[in-house]
Amino acid sequence: QVQLVESGGGLVQAGGSLRLSCAASGSDFSINNMGWFRQAPGKQRELVAVITSGRSTNYAGSVKGRFTISRDNAKDTVYLQMNSLKPEDTAIYYCNAGVVVKTLVYNYWGQGTQVTVSS
Predict the structure, then answer these.
(1) CA–CA distance from 25 to each of 59, 84, 85 (Å)?
(2) Least CB-packed of 67, 69, 115, 118 within 10 Å?
(3) First CA to last CA across the chain, in angstroms?
């Protein structure tokens, strides 16, 4: 069984920064893509950023230039550095990973971490 554990959310003023982390734990697995999604109240979950095992990245237009996704493959951990935060970035942020166990790929989600940006 693989678990994704997130940390780093919190309350910050507009213009501030936060760094989210998500670590995968378990045994006998590898990870393909890792990413961050977010869901604001009353809205659908949306992709924020994704990074491949080769460290290619893709970002939602609303965060491009402000957020940076990175990963440490040795630690099975993905990070999201969020700068110049805006009130509209307020949401629950979820880590996502494509986990390979033997020859099968499973989609895993973290429990979510709240990010609140005050104006």
Answers:
(1) 25, 31, 29
(2) 118
(3) 41
Residue 117, classed as helix, strand or coil, is strand
Residue pLDDT, tens place only, 79-106: 999 999 999 999 999 999 999 999 899 9
Tracing tokens 């950023």 back to the chain, one arrives at 49
pLDDT of residue 61: 97
Which 8-state DSSP code applies to residue 110? -
Q: Which two tokens stand for residue 21?
A: 């982390």
pLDDT, tens digit, for every residue of 10-45?
999 999 999 999 999 988 889 999 999 999 999 999
How many other C-beta atoms can be found within 10 angstroms of the C-beta atom of residue 73? 13
- Count of beta carbons in the 10 Å neighbourhood of residue 15: 11
Residues in the chain: 119
- DSSP assignment string, 46-78: EEEEEE-TT--EEE-TTTTTTEEEEEETTTTEE
Residue carrying structure tokens 């494509």: 98
Residues 22 and 77: their CA atoms lie apart, in Å, by: 5
